[in-house]
Specification:
32% strand, 19 strands, 355 residues, extended, 3 domains, 9 helices, Jelly Rolls, alpha+beta, disordered N terminus, three-stranded mixed sheet, Phage tail protein beta-alpha-beta fold, 14-stranded mixed sheet
Length: 355
């Protein structure tokens, strides 16, 4: 089974981490309005309250055990140790065993508590979020050297630990060129679907009704989990798919409880159409429209002509495929302030719209 069980439990672990921090602050004494903020956090989600109760109960048990180990009746005293005889020696061994067991139990329990409070931040770093907007594109080199390219209107969260490289695709489409690291597999999680890779390249698209994965290099493994909400403690049920190799594309409908995959082969010549959004781009940031039009005109047969001086100095921003003049023109005409005229198939005239 894939490690995306950890993804399903990640939120619960963060809740427990926050709960432990709240309890530590409470024991030190509230300052200002922190108690009201604590109660607001507790009541915001029933899982917050459950985590607080469980951790509080564990801590109270530790305090009870600490009282026991401090109880003089559980300690061997001088009279018992100085007395001879088998009964006294047996009592001494019993008392030492009880004291040692309680001390060991406190040490183990305290270690578990400290692991929850202190180790959680190292094991569960806050994810880094990346977002693209309409007609946008980003190429990001992740800290392991892998390259992530994000199509327009895409949102991802990246979370790397010492044992795992994880990306959560929340919406949109992204392509990954993964650096090989057998000790830290690379996971892309998309809803209930998980894609696992070590060193490979693949594209993932998260649509409104399906998840689509195309392998362009190497091989990946696909897994899916259906589970009840975390608060119910429901069991996860894995759905295993065969490994995909370069040229394989799997489409998984997300509209039913049973994630049924549709596997197909994609010829290398079809990659260009599927991954057209990854092509060379022009990037504009407060760029005069005249300059943007000049860059498009250098790359395309279709020429953009601007007849108005004020329009030439209009600042624009965005990211466009080099050959996508039509998308560029549509964006300009979108708010109704710029009129578009075509005097010929290879000429696009821009001018201020009539008021």
């Amino acid at each position: 089974m894939f490690e995306n069980k950890r993804n399903l439990n990640r939120k619960g672990k963060r809740i427990r981490k926050l709960a432990s921090e709240w309890l530590a602050e409470r024991d030190e004494g509230w300052e200002g309005a922190r108690e009201e903020e604590f109660e607001a956090w507790r009541s915001r989600d029933v899982r917050h309250d459950i985590a607080l109760r469980e951790l509080d109960a564990s801590w109270n048990r530790l305090k009870e055990l600490r009282h026991l180990i401090d109880d003089p009746s559980l300690r061997p005293n001088a009279d018992i140790l100085s007395a001879g005889g088998r009964l006294q020696r047996q009592r001494r061994r019993s008392l030492l065993a009880i004291g040692g067991s309680i001390a060991a139990l406190i040490a183990v329990s305290l270690g578990l508590w400290l692991a929850t409070v202190e180790m959680a931040p190292n094991e569960l770093p806050e994810p880094v979020s990346y977002t693209t907007t309409f007609n946008d594109y980003q190429q990001i080199t992740l800290k392991d050297g892998s390259v992530m390219e994000m199509n327009a209107n895409t949102q991802v969260e990246v979370e790397f630990t010492k044992s795992r490289r994880g990306v959560n695709l929340l919406r949109g489409e992204a392509h990954f060129q993964v650096e090989k690291d057998a000790s830290r597999p690379f996971f892309v999680e998309v809803g209930s679907v998980s894609v696992k890779a070590v060193g490979t390249a693949f594209n993932v698209r998260y649509g409104s009704s399906e998840v689509q994965v195309l392998v362009t290099e190497g091989r990946v493994a696909i897994d899916a989990l259906r589970s009840e909400p975390e608060i119910s403690g429901g069991e996860t049920t894995p759905t295993m798919y065969p490994e995909l190799i370069a040229g394989d594309q799997v489409t998984i409908s997300t509209q039913s409880d049973h994630l049924v995959p549709l596997l197909s082969k994609v010829e290398s010549k079809e990659y260009e159409n599927i991954l057209a959004w990854k092509g060379p781009r022009l990037f504009f940031n407060a760029t005069p429209l005249e300059e943007a039009a000049r860059q498009f005109n250098e790359q395309n047969v279709v020429q953009v002509i601007i007849e108005d001086d004020e329009l030439r100095n209009l600042s624009i921003g965005g990211s466009f495929l080099v050959e996508d003049v039509e998308a560029f023109v549509r964006l300009l005409a979108g708010d109704g302030s710029i009129a578009v005229e075509r005097s010929d198939f290879d000429r696009v005239l821009l001018k201020p719209a009539q008021q």
